[in-house]
Hints:
The protein is of the alpha+beta class. The chain has helices spanning 2-5, 37-45, 49-53, 61-77, 238-241, 258-264, 343-356, 432-435, 460-463, 490-496; strands at 8-17, 87-88, 93-96, 105-111, 116-123, 129-137, 165-166, 188-192, 199-213, 221-235, 248-250, 271-275, 281-286, 295-298, 310-313, 315-318, 321-322, 328-332, 339-342, 360-362, 372-376, 386-390, 394-397, 413-417, 420-423, 427-430, 438-443, 448-453, 514-525, 529-534. Among the domains are: 84-284, Cathepsin D, subunit A, domain 1, CATH 2.40.70; 293-451, Cathepsin D, subunit A, domain 1 (Beta Barrel), CATH 2.40.70.10. It has ten helices and 30 strands. It comes from Vigna angularis var. angularis.
Amino acid sequence: MFMAIGLLLWLLLAKGLTSEGSLGVTFSSRLVHSFSEEAKVHLASRGNGSALQSWPERNSSEYLRLLLRSDVTRQRMRLGSQYETLYPSEGGQTFSFGNVLYWLHYAWIDIGTPNVSFLVALDAGSDMLWVPCDCIECASLSAGNYNVLDRDMNLYTPSLSNTSRHLPCGHKLCGEQSSCKGPKDPCPYSVQYASDNTTSSGFLFEDKLHLASDGRHTEQNSVQASIILGCGRKQTGEYLEGASPDGVLGLGPGNISVPSLLAKAGLTQNSFSICLGENESGRIIFGDQGYVTQHSTPFLPINGEFTAYMVGAESFCVGNLCLKETRFQLLIDSGSSFTFLPNEVYQKVVLEFDKQVSATRIILSQTSWDYCYNASSQELINIPPLKLAFSRNQTLLFQNPIFTGFASPEKEYTLFCLPIAPTDYEYATIGQNYLMGYRMVFDRENLRFGWSRWNCQDKASLASPSNGGSPNPLPANQQQSVPNARAVPPAIAGHASAKPSAATAGLISKHSLVSMLLICHLWLLSCCEVYLICV
Ligand SMILES: *[C@@H]1O[C@H](CO)[C@@H](O)[C@H](O)[C@H]1NC(C)=O
Ligand SMILES: *[C@@H]1O[C@H](CO)[C@@H](O)[C@H](O)[C@H]1NC(C)=O
Ligand SMILES: *[C@@H]1O[C@H](CO)[C@@H](O)[C@H](O)[C@H]1NC(C)=O
Ligand SMILES: *[C@@H]1O[C@H](CO)[C@@H](O)[C@H](O)[C@H]1NC(C)=O
Ligand SMILES: *[C@@H]1O[C@H](CO)[C@@H](O)[C@H](O)[C@H]1NC(C)=O
Ligand SMILES: *[C@@H]1O[C@H](CO)[C@@H](O)[C@H](O)[C@H]1NC(C)=O
Ligand SMILES: *[C@@H]1O[C@H](CO)[C@@H](O)[C@H](O)[C@H]1NC(C)=O
Ligand SMILES: *[C@@H]1O[C@H](CO)[C@@H](O)[C@H](O)[C@H]1NC(C)=O
Ligand SMILES: *[C@@H]1O[C@H](CO)[C@@H](O)[C@H](O)[C@H]1NC(C)=O
């Protein structure tokens, strides 16, 4: 049916934002950098004046030098986690099926005993892992309905897994205790995503996630990790239309997310990486801290807390020109198909792009992409490279700055768009289209986002000597967690916000973050009529 209408593009955003009813995921972890202001306050409260005197000013060269020294020290110590890196037992390969599964990136994971496999969407913008289960309302899981899968997807049935247990209401990771009768009751969850009516709800379970490690002696070790997953009994909205039909693997900073639980259990470093291949095939690796030589930039706290993978760009560069006054914050979001810039930055970027590109601008009606072009295939098209500049001369070059996926009716010309849309939010969202071709490291321990070019395939490059970037955790006494953290209790965060809608997204700086999934459908009818609908 989709094909009869024409090319159907799904634009999907998954980001951590506040909305009512998403109480199940308002966990925020208390990762505090050992030289952070918070750790400083904590130390002060313990009356260690001598430590305070030697505390470096934030962002001073001394601070950076100390950071570096502590990393080196940790690499020498080589204590800590049991495994260098772990990946899902089916290999950790990720897949993108384009349109059909909404431009998201997926991986097969195995859960339970005996194990059952699920094709989950990878989402750095939310914390919860949920899979369809004991269904009241779930999407179709038959491969035949999607055309791109070689096997059916599965349901989770807790009663068939002998390692499955209800998470009790009294458990500290149960976020919706207010709707429990007693501490032994099963803990319910309900996650509301940004798209209207797009939710998953059910009960939380503990079970085993099957992982593998290449081990130090080459043979593959299998590892079973206890994780918490949502038994998604009822999905609504886009989840019934074909977006991530077999569940979502939330990779956010929250305590309930799989990377958080693996690190807490001491199985891996508190870090993971995703590589989204330019070939539709990528890789996810838990515990990966990347290369020492990778580019990196710090994660920015939101209200003093590390609740989303937010970083700060100094400038957006078009061609050789790094635009003035284009400093902005951006969310790194593997679960977003395309890229969104705050209005002011957007205006500057598109005008400069338009100035530099050598092709005729055309209007594709009703798309949120305003800068689309028609170039005859005879012309040599000059597309200016696009990159982000971060502090300390760190840059991220977008490997493929334009979108050319339109089914052009004739061969004589090419239609392409600058796949960036404006947003009223005060921060940008960098989606998977601009993250491809990099090993993206979410180093939660050192609170840094790192990146380096990688084809996502060549595993040998992971184990090469240049991979000195697997430092071990600080000794426990340096892993400060701050008392009196200003964490907003989930229930309060939920009730404080108005009705969930895209409009509440602007509240990011005022509330703690929860998952939010904004799904846009981009329909291309015939060659040049495009509709973008965000629900
Ligand atoms: C997350 O875990 C840390 C350490 O285990 C704890 O101090 C913190 O309170 C937790 N955060 C939430 C929101 O539960
Ligand atoms: C105070 O800080 C100093 C310097 O970092 C350290 O050597 C000392 O052990 C600390 N004392 C206490 C009581 O934590
Ligand atoms: C850190 O210092 C550099 C150079 O002094 C400056 O350009 C940058 O904006 C500072 N970053 C922060 C987060 O303060
Ligand atoms: C769980 O099931 C597996 C096989 O599916 C079996 O090997 C194992 O002994 C069972 N464990 C328990 C505790 O029943
Ligand atoms: C999953 O189960 C199948 C058989 O049911 C088995 O061959 C495979 O090794 C299991 N995978 C893991 C990671 O335990
Ligand atoms: C969401 O649900 C409400 C009530 O069920 C309905 O009125 C509204 O049209 C739905 N929105 C979308 C985009 O489906
Ligand atoms: C693109 O340009 C070619 C030749 O200049 C023209 O034939 C074609 O209709 C144009 N297509 C669109 C969508 O504007
Ligand atoms: C950044 O790069 C410029 C030019 O390449 C150079 O002049 C400057 O010293 C560099 N700054 C830092 C902090 O490395
Ligand atoms: C992409 O796939 C093609 C064919 O399967 C292969 O030749 C090429 O090396 C791949 N590129 C990358 C970057 O993996």
